[in-house]
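Field guide to reading this record: the first block holds the primary sequence, the second block holds the structure written as discrete tokens, and the final block holds curator observations. Each block starts with its own label. This record concerns Rhomboid family intramembrane serine protease, catalogued under organism Desulforapulum autotrophicum.

BLOCK 1 — SEQUENCE
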Amino acid sequence: MIPIRDTTPSESVPVVIYGLIALNTLVFLVTLGLSPGEVTQFVYRYGLVPAKFTVPEISAWFSLPSLLFSTVSYMFLHGGLWHFVGNMWFLYIFGDNVENYFGSLRFVGFYFLSGLASALLHFMLNPMSNVPTIGASGSIAGVMGAYFLLYPRSKILTLIPIIIIPWFVEIPAFLFLGFWFLMQFFNAAGGGSSGIAWWAHVGGFVAGMVMVKMSPRIPATGAGARLKKVTARKRTPQLQVIHPIPLGQTPDLSGEIVISSLEALTGTHKIVNIPWGFYKRLYRVQVPAGVKQGTKLRLGGMGRVNGVTERGDMYLTVVIKNVI
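BLOCK 2 — STRUCTURE
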């Protein structure tokens, strides 16, 4: 299952998420320029290696600042392209809403505390391990744990490839993330692949939930509120899911497409997923400049089939948010 997007749009631009993705990308590109031997040394120095803290013969080679720095730097290292892409994609999908909830400044602390909690659990269960643990998975698991509590009824538009046919389905967030967490837990408890720190994922997820429960006790900062105003979104999501409704006894269907005030003025285009019956189809919709609230856009031939060949139309009602 590949998450494409969630159906709960964030109210602000996730500047911290974009910054974290940029920093992870920079570090990944640096490692691509290293030789295999240099990569091994780089990962051992900046990855999380429990033995560096517990085995005197190994810890003697590292200074205290270097040891402490590795508890943070390990979050920005990845073991390959798909490890990197997968982590950044999940951070992009689930991170914006969590950042919006905490505020950008508090989210920075939340993200790193999730990674530290993940590292701590891994360290406690593998105190003598000489194998480096790397990746942003622990911190991202914390983001997913927070999302699990904050937006359980949100829908995750998910791509399920069936042979060569892409099938899009909306899965409630509590099911998608709950299934993900159970997979991590059972793999950890069952001694899954030694190349993956399953317990670190579990620790990050639980830490994310705990911090959500504790967040009301932490006062918000005025700086965070001001930053949220600056980063307020000016556009609605590019990909939208339309839930069609039949128009009486006709083969026509109706739905809503959501755009912002800016998009209403300048015009825009959206990619819409229109599920009807067993069909789930993607279409590009052009919204003309100067469109008004309640305007109906006609998508010819995208309604229900009536009889053998006749097909109705789809009428999308324009809903403008943040109206000027």
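BLOCK 3 — OBSERVATIONS
DSSP finds twelve helices and twelve strands in the chain.
The chain has a mean pLDDT of 87.
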